[in-house]
Specification:
seven-stranded parallel sheet; alpha/beta; six-stranded parallel sheet; Rossmann fold
Length: 349
């Protein structure tokens, strides 16, 4: 099976990580792959090269799309893929019309169908995204769900000394872009109410200066670490005590699966994605969005309440094993590709 992936995403981000790790898992399963993407993330490009996966880089400039369209067509001609998967809306706008029957759109958010007019098939990351896809008129037999996965079995814990953090201090990890949607301002306000709690924030974004100023105003410089974008989130997860996920808006939120896979308790706000998958008190603690006091109470409970952390880890691990392992992802993704290929062959016959 030959699969081409087209992604025009940001240099870093959750969806971009999903694409990278999906390609890696499919490489482990033996699929032949080629990637078309932007040249702005050396880590991704080096990872693909290390796996022996060919890569074509393009600008994906919508104002002057012709060079990218030419490169996409040439790469398809050379690689001769059985399936072409377009990751997110911008990539979908470069889908090649004559290959529509073998083209698959990937939704990590509530994208408009018009961005994927040259894709016959549509994959949603969550149950609600699948509802969104079908609500725009996509037939049930041309739309399906494939969950993401996480795998941190071999992660070595980050040395806490390297992050100026005491070995015995409770640590909450937030994996998030520094954006208003992620609710990190709420997390900082709540942290002030949890004495002794250290917080690691791994991510970058437009609110970096504002969040650092807020941490200073709250007197939290000694307990909050802004780590920037990290490619070693498995190691950070292994070294923290629990995961804080205070997002105001999340179609899914891969941080949920990350926490479960790493056997860490999860404290999450009730954005639509986490709310659809986390069972409060079983696989995580759910709190209302923007509720500083509720978030602070939940974090104190994880730190102080005997047996709670272990209970949440057990519940999260059960949810993870049920549908978010690498094996489950590979099974479901290959099954999706096989459906596309079989239907395309019937069309061509």
């Amino acid at each position: 099976m030959r699969v081409m992936h087209v992604m025009a995403g940001a240099a870093e981000g959750g969806a971009e990580n999903i694409m990278l790790e999906s390609v890696c898992a499919l490489a482990d399963a033996g699929l032949e792959q080629h990637v078309i993407t932007r040249p702005h993330n050396p880590f991704r490009l080096e990872t693909f090269a290390g796996l022996g996966i060919g890569c074509t880089t393009c600008s994906f400039n919508l104002r002057w799309p012709f060079p990218t369209r030419k490169k996409v067509r040439e790469a398809i001609q050379r690689f001769q893929p059985d399936v072409i998967e377009y990751w997110m809306g911008r990539a979908g706008q470069f889908a090649v019309a004559e290959h529509r029957s073998r083209s698959l759109a990937w939704y990590g958010g509530y994208y408009k169908l018009e961005r994927f007019v040259n894709c016959e098939w549509h994959i949603g990351l969550t149950k609600d995204l699948l509802r969104h896809i079908r609500g725009q008129g996509v037939a049930e037999d041309r739309s399906l769900i494939v969950h993401t996965y996480a795998n941190f079995e071999d992660a070595t814990p980050t040395d806490r000394d390297s992050l100026d953090t005491p070995p015995d201090a409770p640590v909450a990890l937030a994996l998030a872009r520094l954006h208003e949607k992620k609710g990190l301002d709420t997390l900082l306000d709540a942290t002030q109410q949890v004495p002794g709690l250290y917080v690691w924030i791994a991510g970058d974004g437009p609110l970096e200066a504002a969040l650092k100023q807020q941490a200073h105003a709250l007197g939290l410089e000694d307990r909050v670490r802004f780590l920037g974008w990290r490619n070693d989130r498995g190691s950070l997860l292994a070294a923290c005590d629990f995961v804080a996920f205070p997002s105001r808006y999340e179609p899914f939120g891969t941080v949920t699966v990350d926490a479960w896979a790493a056997n860490k308790p999860l404290v999450a706000a009730d954005a639509v994605g986490p709310a659809a998958y986390v069972e409060d008190g079983v696989s995580g603690l759910m709190v209302p969005k923007n509720d500083v006091e509720a978030l602070a109470r939940a974090m104190r409970r994880v730190v102080e309440e005997e047996g709670l952390a272990a209970k949440l880890v057990a519940g999260g691990q059960a949810a993870y094993q049920a549908q978010f392992t690498q094996e489950a992802f590979v099974r479901d993704q290959i099954a999706a590709y096989e459906r596309v290929i079989a239907a395309d062959q019937r069309t061509q016959a």
